[in-house]
């Protein structure tokens, strides 16, 4: 049945009397019939429409259900002072413009990857498939040959030809192409000609998860493509191989795997099954990405505060209050995750961080209030809840790896630089600040830049220069000479390095900031994070909604990769900064543009 027409005017809430009512001759759609017909009722038209996908139904249910964690006044049950965090163990309420409402992270809509119909039919039947790999899949992930489990892999001759064309050079693509060539050479070693036609076991090199076989194109496949498609183009020849395989093996699912969107569109237009490469995706939906923050429900202290213990300790020169609580919510939490509870009945809010988890028992630590001027970091104070959480991570010497996500203007770079200067120049915990970023231009490249490595990188570090100007103006009492001397001192402790020369280096007692980390692949991120030596702290800053690297998505970015893999480690932390603090113009532009 066709979908109803989209309304031309914005939807409004209907009054109770305006809702459609059941008619005597027209059966009303019930939950059982909706499940049976896989339809739902349109509240405006009263007609049944096709139900959304499973993921959309889940998200719609979450949006439609009342927020279970909205801070409301707790019941007036008497609670002993020793069994519930009071004002003595809680930081002051942060400045918040929306009355303490939580700020969900804003992400651009993400395309949920769906398998082709041929793959879905093969999965239901339990049959193995043949995946025809495009060249860009192998150059994106050199180990993709072994990522298809029990299914077979087919390499067209044109794929090998394009691999040969891209093997020269020192780029990441060239290195991956050479690695694939070495892997293929090891697979076909000591293999006869008849064994190549019957398929080479992919588990030959010790990859036990790869239970399928590798096939090469050993003969010319004459498959007719529509007229007008140039036969000399590599993409069209690969499409011809897929069509010929379907003719040779009519009872088997033949699926083209490509990272090229236009290649997949062209294949689907020709009636050929085509899919994206899923294995490098950390998450299908980045709304499910670990945020590092959780709001405690209203009845948290009633369920978890019965046998609560509290004490105070002095760590890293600051005194903090600790609470040991036990309850059913604890197993769903992670170490170094931030929790908050903001009642609306005038009581002091609770901001804490989870330090230990043992079964259903956890230890909460109260935070230092960096929104107060007495705790400012290089003249910078936290303007919202998430920034206060981020500064608690940045200023904690026991946390070696910090990731900060957020849209433009949330203060990622400013907080990182302020924390770095305070710990390099004031507490002297680190020797110097090292700043690096991926050199991916927004528009057209302006060409080669003159000068040394640091001079070549200086145009890419405009964001840090802007933030340094803000930080260096914080001292209003110093004169022109004092500010000039401060600027020279700060510049001498900040080094700008290029990613191209990081391999093989070891940084000792350094404060390393990786900016625009969303443009890094998981392999490049591993190369950078493993540079850390004793006493080094690494910060990864980025916005996964602004990815400029080809073939990288929000789900496969290196920043998403490290956030997901490092969550729950005792010496790492993550915070998603949700609200912009740059200016009212920038905040409005982020919302409406």
TrEMBL record:
UniProt keyword ATP-binding present: yes
Pfam families in the record: PhoH, PIN_4
CDD domains: PIN_VapC_PhoHL-ATPase
Residue span, PIN domain: 129-265
Domain of life: Bacteria
InterPro entries: P-loop_NTPase, PhoH, PhoH2-like, PIN-like_dom_sf, PIN_dom
Keywords in alphabetical order: ATP-binding, Nucleotide-binding
Pro residues bias: start-end ranges: 68-78
SMART domains for this protein: PINc (SM00670)
Record has Transmembrane as a keyword: no
Start and end residues of each stretch annotated as Disordered: 1-34, 49-108
Protein family membership: In the N-terminal section; belongs to the PINc/VapC protein family.
Record-given protein name: PhoH family protein
């Amino acid at each position: 049945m066709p979908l109803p027409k989209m309304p031309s005017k914005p939807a409004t809430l209907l009054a109770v009397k305006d809702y459609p009512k059941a008619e005597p001759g027209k059966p009303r759609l019930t939950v059982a019939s909706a499940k049976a017909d896989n339809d739902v009722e349109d509240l405006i038209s009263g007609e049944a429409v096709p139900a959304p996908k499973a993921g959309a139904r889940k998200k719609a249910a979450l949006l439609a259900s009342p927020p279970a964690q909205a801070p409301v006044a707790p019941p007036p049950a008497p609670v002993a002072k020793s069994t519930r965090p009071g004002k003595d163990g809680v930081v002051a309420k942060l400045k918040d413009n929306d009355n303490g409402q939580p700020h969900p992270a804003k992400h651009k809509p993400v395309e949920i990857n769906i398998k082709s119909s041929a793959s879905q039919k093969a999965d239901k039947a339990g049959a193995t498939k043949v995946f025809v790999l495009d060249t860009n899949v192998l150059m994106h992930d050199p180990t993709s040959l072994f990522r298809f489990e029990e299914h077979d892999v087919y390499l067209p001759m044109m794929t090998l030809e394009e691999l040969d064309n891209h093997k020269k050079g020192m780029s990441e693509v060239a290195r991956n192409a050479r690695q694939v060539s070495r892997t293929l050479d090891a697979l076909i070693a000591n293999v006869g000609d008849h064994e190549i036609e019957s398929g080479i076991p992919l588990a030959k090199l010790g990859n036990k998860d790869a239970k399928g076989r590798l096939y090469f194109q050993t003969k010319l496949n004459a498959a007719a493509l529509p007229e007008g498609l140039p036969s000399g183009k590599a993409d069209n020849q690969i499409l011809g191989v897929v069509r010929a395989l379907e003719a040779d093996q009519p009872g088997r699912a033949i699926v083209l795997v490509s990272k090229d969107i236009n290649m997949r569109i062209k294949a689907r237009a020709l009636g050929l099954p085509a899919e994206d490469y899923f294995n490098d995706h950390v998450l299908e939906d980045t709304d499910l990405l670990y945020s590092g923050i959780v709001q405690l429900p209203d009845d948290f202290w009633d369920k978890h505060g019965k046998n609560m213990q509290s004490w105070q300790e002095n760590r890293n020169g600051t005194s903090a209050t600790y609470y040991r609580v036990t309850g059913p919510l604890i197993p769903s939490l992670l170490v170094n995750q931030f929790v908050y509870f903001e009642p609306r009945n005038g009581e002091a809010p609770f901001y804490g961080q989870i330090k230990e988890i043992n079964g259903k028992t956890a230890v909460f630590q109260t935070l230092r209030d960096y929104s107060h001027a007495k705790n400012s970091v290089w003249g910078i104070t936290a303007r919202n809840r998430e920034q206060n959480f981020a500064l608690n991570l940045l200023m904690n010497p026991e946390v070696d790896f910090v990731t900060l996500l957020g849209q433009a203007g949330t203060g990622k770079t400013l907080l990182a630089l302020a924390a770095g200067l305070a710990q390099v120049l004031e507490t002297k915990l680190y020797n110097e600040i090292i700043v690096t970023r991926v050199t991916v231009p927004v528009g057209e490249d302006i060409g080669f830049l003159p000068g040394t490595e640091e001079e070549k990188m200086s145009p890419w570090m405009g964001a840090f220069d802007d933030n340094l100007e803000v930080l260096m103006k914080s001292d209003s009492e110093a004169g022109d000479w004092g500010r000039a001397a401060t600027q020279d001192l700060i510049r001498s402790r900040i080094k700008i390095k290029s990613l191209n020369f990081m391999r093989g280096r070891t940084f000792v007692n350094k404060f390393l900031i990786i900016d625009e980390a969303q443009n890094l692949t998981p392999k490049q991120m591993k190369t950078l994070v493993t540079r850390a030596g004793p006493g080094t702290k690494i910060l990864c800053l980025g916005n996964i909604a602004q990815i400029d690297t080809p073939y990288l998505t929000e789900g496969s970015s290196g920043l998403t990769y490290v956030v997901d893999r490092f969550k729950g480690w005792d010496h790492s932390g993550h915070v998603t900064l949700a609200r912009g603090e740059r200016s009212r113009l920038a905040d409005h532009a982020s919302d409406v543009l």
